[in-house]
Design brief:
This protein is α/β, with parallel strands linked by helices and 394 residues long. The protein has 2 domains: 187 residues, Glycogen Phosphorylase B (Rossmann fold); 162 residues, Rossmann fold, CATH 3.40.50.2000. 39% of the residues lie in helices and 16% in strands. The chain has 14 helices and 13 strands. The strands form 2 sheets. The chain has a 7-stranded parallel sheet with strand order 3-2-1-4-5-6-7, sandwiched between helices. Helix 11 links the parallel strand 12 and strand 13. Helix 3 crosses helix 4, helix 4 runs parallel beside helix 5 and helix 7 crosses helix 12. It is globular, with a radius of gyration of 21 Å. The N and C termini lie far apart (42 Å).
Length: 394
């Protein structure tokens, strides 16, 4: 698979693909500064924005600070990629390089997405004389299980946001979190994440025998996979006929070994299908009867929850950050306490025992996605922030 990445000074732009409409000649250019080493929820947002922003009059390009999965997995093939690798967290040698790109390619705005990219983007934008917008995808203070890393990243993030006119948070809970950190409400705009949905969702009925539970993630400790395995062990000990379909890759080989060892000890390894990473999440969702999000913390508004809703797969999720803003307990899904295997098992069993109407929840989820969480609505919200920032500058 060919990947269009620019290595300065040579410049080779990828051709537009059928999935990504070519921007009009008069569109405003925005440079998104991203890590790019993974292709998970935040990267899906960045990719979908590149697909949909041209409809709003904006052309997105990307500067990759770490490189990796994003370049290969992205759908927006017409978006230009600039290879601007950092050798470490505080390697700032690419700042001038990015500022030169902004000036030379006539970018009107810089859009950063992580603490690392906020630092680089803020300095490069200042050097190039353009404003920056910052996208808050999850609470940096609770983004990993390493407390020191979280503290350092939060300090870097806070310092980088001085003078940034507008921040986008993907949920109201994240906006409240940023206000607690001292960010004024006038600088915060909530734009919910959004995903495309099928034109028509196929009719389905709940299973009469074995239920397939599904989880889709970049598997790392804060995703709560251990809690889900414990819940499955509890359910199977009560003769519940269930399997788990686990879609995604592990963050590290060490963590993969820990999880699979846990499954062996719980005697549920034979009931789990590890499928690895996929570019076709909808196809995997069609194989699931329930989608389970067992996250412990660090979720802004999970894209995969919205995808499950769009495809009519009822959600069992935990009450973390923005999840309850999309999934109302007993309406579009069932919610459980985070880090509580017993309560997660209870929530799953609500469907298995017929205590909640699988079909009614399925249709409510489809309707809620179409009304509030589409990719076009997300792009329109982000474009509105761009317009406000650029108008203020003028």
């Amino acid at each position: 698979m060919s990947v269009a990445v620019l290595h300065e000074p040579e410049k080779q732009k990828s051709a537009p693909s059928p999935e990504s409409p070519a921007p009009s000649p008069g569109s405003t250019r925005v440079l998104h500064i991203i890590n790019g080493d993974h292709y998970a929820g935040a990267e899906r947002v960045q990719d979908l924005l590149a697909l949909r922003l041209p409809e709003q009059g904006y052309q997105a390009s990307f500067a990759l600070l770490k490189g990796g999965a994003f370049a290969e997995a992205r759908m927006a093939k017409s978006a230009t990629l600039y290879d601007t690798p950092m050798r470490g967290r505080f390697d700032l040698r690419q700042i001038r390089h990015i500022a030169d790109i902004v000036r030379r390619e006539d970018f009107a705005l810089v859009h950063a997405h992580t603490a690392r990219s906020a630092l680089v983007g803020r300095l490069a934008a200042s050097m190039a004389g353009v404003p920056m917008v910052y996208h808050v995808h999850s609470p940096t203070m609770f983004n990993t299980t390493n407390r020191l890393t979280n503290i350092v990243n939060t300090i870097v993030e806070r310092a980088s946001l001085i003078g940034v006119p507008r921040m986008i948070t993907v949920s109201h809970s994240l906006a409240a979190h940023m206000r607690k950190l001292g960010i004024a409400s006038r600088r915060l705009t909530v734009v919910h994440n959004g995903v495309p949905g099928p034109a028509d969702v196929e009719d389905r009925v709940p299973p009469s025998t074995e239920w397939t539970l599904g989880v889709v993630a970049l598997f790392r400790p804060r995703k709560g996979l251990e809690v889900l395995l414990d819940a499955i062990g509890l359910l199977r000990s009560h003769d519940c006929d269930i399997r788990l379909r686990a879609v995604g890759k592990f963050e590290t080989p060490e963590y993969e070994a820990q999880i699979k060892d846990r499954a062996q000890r719980l005697e549920i390894a034979d009931a789990i299908d590890w499928t690895g990473f996929t570019r076709d999440v909808p196809a995997e969702l069609r194989r699931m009867d329930l989608f389970v999000l067992p996250s412990l913390f660090g979720e802004g508004l999970p894209m995969v929850v919205l995808e499950a809703m769009a495809h009519g797969v009822p959600v069992v999720g935990t009450r973390v950050e923005g999840v309850p803003e999309a999934v109302r307990d007993g309406v579009e899904g069932v919610l459980a306490r985070p880090d509580d295997a017993v309560d997660l098992a209870r929530a799953i069993r609500q469907f298995l025992d017929g205590n909640v109407d699988w079909q009614a929840i399925r249709h409510a989820a489809i309707d809620r996605h179409r009304g509030d969480f589409s990719d076009t609505a997300m792009a329109a919200g982000v474009a509105g922030v761009y317009r406000a920032v650029l108008a203020r500058r003028v």
